[in-house]
UniProtKB/TrEMBL annotation:
PANTHER family: RIBOSOMAL PROTEIN L25/GLN-TRNA SYNTHETASE, ANTI-CODON-BINDING DOMAIN-CONTAINING PROTEIN (PTHR33284), RIBOSOMAL PROTEIN L25_GLN-TRNA SYNTHETASE, ANTI-CODON-BINDING DOMAIN-CONTAINING PROTEIN (PTHR33284:SF1)
Ranges of Basic and acidic residues composition bias in the record: 223-242
Subunit (UniProt): Part of the 50S ribosomal subunit; part of the 5S rRNA/L5/L18/L25 subcomplex. Contacts the 5S rRNA. Binds to the 5S rRNA independently of L5 and L18.
Domain Large ribosomal subunit protein bL25 L25 residue range list: 8-98
Name this protein carries in UniProt: Large ribosomal subunit protein bL25
Function summary: This is one of the proteins that binds to the 5S RNA in the ribosome where it forms part of the central protuberance.
UniProt entry tagged with the keyword Glycosyltransferase: no
Similarity section: Belongs to the bacterial ribosomal protein bL25 family. CTC subfamily.
Domain of life: Bacteria
GO cellular component: cytosolic large ribosomal subunit
GO biological process: translation
Length: 242
């Protein structure tokens, strides 16, 4: 885990500040409703400063770090962010869920995946297409071991190769939650697909004709005109002057 420090300031929400209508009024005051829960304590409803939260959300590490929430009039809370609700059109934060941590106690955290070595992979040089099937991963570890992200080296992938969960090199003390369950599923997280080839249209060759078929020479045309002229002379009616 990096040494970045994320601190948010909050105030406790009173009973009349609960519910959808109250939450809308808070957002108009540049406050974001949130809840803090876990560690065998009562859930705590708070309001966060919108600008502080927006600034923190711009940093990817915010989602995989231990955060400090300074609650006015109470002890500071050590938490991780578990859920963030955003406006469907504006993408602005509307509500946040934070889980308290207990030092030394393992917990489940979702961290980003970073793929490296794509350009150096043999499959890429052969025209293959790298496809990632996962952008983050749920892990299990104690709070002090939470990594900022998980790095996956794909520089050895050839066309047709894949990387599965069991292929990922995890930091010491960090486990993949999906592989810790009773029936683990070793799913694929990345593949190097074969290049897509566009069909090549073959040129259409003209049909071959037998020699002389369907064609007439100039001499044939001239002979036909002479024969027709003779026929016309024989068939023409004679005039009275002849």
């Amino acid at each position: 885990m990096s040494q970045q420090d994320f601190t948010l300031n909050a105030v406790v929400r009173s009973d009349d500040q609960q519910g959808k209508g109250a939450s809308r009024r808070l957002r108009k005051q540049n406050l974001v409703p949130a809840i803090v829960y876990g560690a065998d304590k009562e859930p705590l409803s708070v309001s966060l400063r919108y600008n502080e939260l927006i600034k923190s959300l711009q940093n990817e590490a915010f989602f995989s770090h231990i955060l400090t929430i300074n609650v006015e009039g109470q002890e500071a809370e050590e938490v991780i962010i578990k859920a963030l609700q955003r406006h469907p059109a504006k993408n602005t934060p509307m509500h946040a869920d934070f889980q308290r941590i207990v030092r030394g106690q393992a917990m489940n955290v979702t961290v980003p995946l970073h793929y490296v070595g794509v350009e150096d992979a043999p499959g890429t040089k052969e025209g293959g297409i790298f496809v990632s099937n996962a952008t983050d991963l749920e892990i299990t570890c104690i709070p002090s071991k939470i990594p900022e992200f998980i790095t996956i080296d794909v520089s050895g992938l050839a066309v047709g190769d894949s990387i599965h969960l069991m292929d990922i090199n995890m930091p010491e003390g960090v486990a993949i939650r999906e592989l810790e369950v009773e029936e683990p599923f070793n799913r694929t997280v990345a593949t190097m697909q074969a290049p897509t080839l566009e069909p090549v249209e073959e040129p259409i060759e003209p049909e071959e004709h037998e020699e002389g078929a369907g064609t007439r020479s100039t001499e044939d045309d001239e002979e036909a005109r002479k024969v027709q002229a003779q026929d016309d002379t024989h068939d023409a009616p004679k005039s009275d002057d002849e």
